Amino acid sequence: MTPTTDLRTHYMGLDLANPIVASSSPLTGQIDTLVALQEAGAAAIVLPSLFEEQIEHDAMGLHRGLDTGADQHGEVFGGYFPELDSYNTGPDRYLRTLIAAKNELTIPVIASLNGTSTGGWTHYAKLLEDEGADALELNIYLIAADANASAADVEDQYLQLVAAVRSTVEIPLAVKIGPFFSSPANMARRLVDAGADGLVLFNRFYQPDIDLDQLSTTPNLVLSSPNEMRLVLRWVAILHGQLEASLAATTGIHDAEAAIKLILAGADVTMMTSALLMHGPEHVTTVLDGLSHWFTEREYRSLTQARGSLSQKSSPDPSSFERTNYMANLASYSPH
Fold first, then answer.
1. Residue 17 burial (CB count, 10 A)
2. Distance separating alpha carbons of residues 130 and 1, to the nearest angstrom
3. Helix H or strand E encompassing 135
4. In a 3-state reduction of DSSP, which class is residue 300?
5. Residue 70: partners with Cβ closer than 8 Å, 6 or more residues away
6. DSSP codes of every residue in 35-80
7. Angle between the 229-239 and 184-194 helix axes, to the nearest 10 degrees?
């Protein structure tokens, strides 16, 4: 009987039982679903992001409350409320979720920060580290909409944020980015040089819609589809072996087949969100069963043996990930 393939993997120095990670979503913000994800086999979880705008909103709301009526009566000089440092605001709820997750789970818990500026990120990153986060993911969601900002300006903003956080925390640091750089491979290398221990490819920039009845823009969340995995597959395969950093694949990973392809391309872990929202935490077990069956059937001893075997670096035809692939795709189409 063929021994079962060893599915263990390493992500930014974290030892994981397998490559399936539950990425940031509403599911990872509730302790009961976190426990269910662990029981289903998830090797690690990423908490929902702590948003820069939410911290600022909470802080400004409290600031207005603290100032209400200040200086209008001698006995309430300075305001009616306690000092800010003794009052729960901003990331307090997030920190409670992190602490509860660390108490309930045995798998690594990765905290997530979502923002565009250094601001207080170094402060909050340190708080998350101090409360026990096993790693930190910077979810940089920056829309380059300013026509006066050059590509270099945008890239520098990313690099400065990563460097600032790296100088503050010692836990592993992942950076979740979008694909819209003029030279993604070069930018990936510069992010690693700035201090990233891992790259998460790719952030999915949700697009607004227009409500024709209200004549206003409106949010309209659309979950990922499996074909979105192709872009991730290409860049994981290109970057594998070029960087001294872990690679996490995310977006469009709905089943074992997608996870297998990304591991062969060079991913250390595959992260799932939409499929788990659609099918629930138990879907992790289905994916893991398919993963184990496929690799065991083909007599792989471990994921280490398989990882990157179909990357650009290992491919007998490296151009298949570049322009040749574009031409081959056009030629392969058939209406039937």
1. 16
2. 47
3. strand 135-140
4. coil
5. 76, 77, 78, 79, 80
6. HHHHHHT-SEEEEEEEEHHHHHHHHHHHHHHHHTTTTSSGGGTT-S
7. 60
Residue 64, CB-side half-sphere exposure with 13 Å CA sphere: 5
- pLDDT band with cut points at 50, 70 and 90 for residue 3: confident
Tokens of 231: 């872009």
Residue extents of the structural domains in the chain: 9-332
N-term to C-term CA, the chain: 42
Give the chain's length: 336
User: For 6-52, what is each residue's pLDDT tens digit?
Assistant: 999 999 999 999 999 999 999 999 999 999 999 999 999 999 999 87
Handedness of CA 252, 256, 262, 266 (dihedral sign): positive
**Rounded distance, CA 271 to CA 251, Å?**
8
The pLDDT of residue 319: 66
C-alpha–C-alpha distance, residues 73 and 211, integer Å: 49
Question: Between 156 and 145, whose confidence is greater?
Answer: 156
Task: Name residues whose C-beta falls within 8 Å of residue 206's C-beta, 6 or more positions apart in sequence.
Answer: 219, 221, 222
* CA pair distance 298, 332, nearest whole angstrom: 28
Cα–Cα distance measured from residue 23 to residue 110, given in angstroms and rounded to the nearest whole number:
9
Helices (H), the chain: 31-40, 52-67, 92-104, 121-130, 151-166, 184-194, 229-239, 256-265, 274-279, 283-297, 303-306, 323-332
Using CA atoms, how far residue 274 sits from 128, 155, 248, in Å, is 26, 28, 16
CATH number of 9-332: 3.20.20.70
SS3 216: strand
For the chain, the helix, strand and coil percentages under 3-state DSSP, each to the nearest 5: 45, 15, 40
Angle at 180 between CA 176 and CA 181, to 5 degrees: 90
